[in-house]
Structure formats: C-alpha cells, structure tokens
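Hi Y.,

Following your request, here is the sequence exactly as I used it, all 466 residues.
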Amino acid sequence: ATMMEGKVYPRVVIVVLCLFLFCCNRHASFLPWVQGAASSAPPPSARGVTRLRFLFDLVDANHDDHMDLKEIQTFLHAIEPEDPPTSLESLANMMNYVYSSTSSSSSSSLSPVTSVSWEAFRMKHPNLDLMTPEGFPEQIHLSLLSDGSWETVIVIWIVFQQGNSSSPSFVQYAPRSDSSSTNSVSSSSMMMTQYAVNRTYDVGLGGWHGTIYQASMTGLRQCTNYTYQVGRTNALSASHSFSVPCPGPSSSYKFAVMGDMGTVIPAGWLVTKFMEEDNEKEKFTAIIHLGDIAYAGINADGEVSAIWDIWGSQVSSLSSSMPYMTAVGNHESYYNFTAFNNRFHMPGQESGGQDNFWFSFNVGFVHWVMISTEHNYAPGSPQYTWLVSDLTKAASARASQPFVVVCGHRPILSSNMMEEDTHLPGSTLFETFDPLFVKFNVDLVLTGHVHAYERSFYDNATTIVN
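Below is the corresponding structure, written out as tokens. Let me know if you'd prefer a different format.
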C-alpha cells in the first residue's frame, strides 16, 4: 500500500539464514548395504527399522549406538567435501545448542555434548521414530497454482506397501465448521471429492519403493477454512485443515522463508520446530523454501530417498496446513533432479515456466518469481527468456501485485567468503540477473546456499552490508 502511494524504497537483496543441517554420508563404510548393486539394497522398512534409526546408523560408523563428534564431523564433511571440515569445537557448541534449545534446563547447566546415544536421539525425535501403517498416506503437502485466486490447491501425499489394491485414491474436503463435533470430512453435507493421479520413481542408492499421489482441491472459496483427508477407502489420513485468505486492501499475508534445511543431523528439525511455534502465534499464509531441501545426497553421484522421506515427515505438520513452495538448489540435482521433480508440484506449466525449476505465482499483493540457479540462465536461454517475459507481465500488474519478490538458491550478492567470486559484482550470476532486477524494479531478492545471514543494498558503487 505504501508503494502504491508513490513512495520509493531501495532494492534489497537478502541472503536468508541457512542452517547447514545435513543428513547422509558419502563413505561406503557408512553404508554397508550399498555394496554391490544399489537396486538390491532393501529400504529401511524392509530391514525392520524406522527411517530415523536408519539415518542414525549411517552416522554411527563404529556401530556402538553412539554418534560421537568425530563421526558427525566426517558425516557433515562428506556432504560438503569442497568446504573445510567443521572443527570439533564448533560441532560441540552446535550439538550443545541443539540439545539445550529444547531442554528445560539452562544451557549453562548442561555438560558439553561429545556424543549422542541412540536412546537420546530417538527421544529427541519421537515423531520421526515411527512407521506409517501399510497403505496409509504420509508426507502430505500443499502447493498453489500461479494465478493467486486459490480456487484450486494441489495436495500431494506418499503411500508405501499398499499391495495390489485397485480402489482409487482421492482427496475429500469441505468447508470447516469450528462447531463440528467430529474431525471426519465425510460427515459434512458440503463434502467434495477429487480423484488422484499417481507416479513413482526408482533411482538412488537402494532405489525407492513408494507411490506419489496428486489431486486438486477445486472450487475453493475465499475467506474460508477447509478440512480434508487423503487416501483411499479404509486407508484415509487424519483430517488436516488450511485457510483460503481474504482478498482486499485490508488483508495481510505472512510468509516463512528459509533455505538449506536438512533433517536431524544436527538441526534441520529445529527450523521446523521454530516455524511451528511461530505459526501457532500468528498463522503463516505460505512457506517459501529456497532450495537445498532434504540433503539426501551421500556423495557426488548418489542420494538415498529415505532421507527425503524423513524430511517429508518432519515438515508435514506445516506442509499439510499451508502451501509449501520450493525453489531448487544444488543438493536436489541428483539423477537429473528426479526426486525433487517428482515429490513436488510447482506451477511451472501454469506460469509458462519449466516444471519445478522456474515459475511464478501470486499471493495477495506479492508476485513471487522462482528462478533456478542450477540451470542455464544465460541471455537467450529458455529460463532467461521466460524471466524477462514474466517480469514484463508483472510490471503491468503492479496495481494488483505492487510487490515483486524473486527467489533462488545461490546468492547474486554476498560478502561471505564461501565461493566469493560467484556472488560479487562482476560475477556471471550478478551480471546476468542484476540488470533485469534493476530494470523491472524488483523489490526483494531472497536466496540461500551461503550458510550465513545478511541483508545488503547495492547502489552500483558501494555495497552496504548489515
């Protein structure tokens, strides 16, 4: 509203907080079951262990039921081998913070953390030390189409070991009545049903043995709360709910934006926990994830899809209750981005972009533009051509979406010394995108990749960093 009154604000580039929260090790000694043909390796459920135990065993190289700092150091360095290993002192401080931050005791009264036992680890993550019953939905998440109307919301879920059932899968949904005495959607006289399509993939070390379902909840009304369930007859999920916001100048929108998350080694789950706590205080409209999502890769050539499943379960309390929109990062690139492209549905096709890689969508007064720093973005490339077209359209729609926000993974501007020559004025990334952002008056750029936080303003001569 302020911008519409004609006031001008400086263009801002933000490098969002990235907690380097990794999940898997590259060394074969950590993965004895990977030896030989990867396709013959059993998934965690076939080995009779939860995914959490599976992950713990990857780190616990000497199999003594404890993760010590040296094992964690080796584990983390395998994920980012181009970076120096994290010092044991820094790891000790990090692990002490991770465990004290959820403890009722003050951090000063806790002994330094030098190792974590399996029992302590599973007590910290009881919601992840579970097996979903066969055939039941899990890892539910929502996403938006591009037009901003919220008339349709996409819902995706995953099912394992459902046998040869021929019964169709579907989403059933209805306007939510807070006075309802039951959580069952089917009890509503206004229940609607949409059937799902499905897909799967089978790449990675050990392969992957789930089925991904996708359905569209259509005919949604503004200013309305909805409750829904997914699955099939006799195998329905619990009820979940989400809200379609109200339009108009008096509406407000709140977004959680972060990047480089990971799972439980050591602290990606804390990011989820903090977002859950903030969402309880004031509901988010949507979540924007700036790439590097699950850190499922274990070396330069392979990833383990069970790590994706841990992440999907970790964020499901949020992703099932609001749109969870994702940019692509370098850690999603395995097998030509197969897991990333199958597990999400972003509005690439609807916005004229490409799959889950570059696309745009509207939420309220904001036009969100998601770019891929992992694909060709040179002038004349399909992505660059699309970006110019999208920003041109956005410029003509400023009356309805006065704010234009661009999101990607790698920063175009940062003072951090990591890969410094790639995110300074003069770099290819900067020289390609910055002129476009200036020309089209982009208000805000949000990126991840660099595991630091800073805000910066570039005035073509001086970089002012906060």
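Confidence is low (pLDDT under 50) at residues 1-41, 103-109.

Thanks again,
Q.
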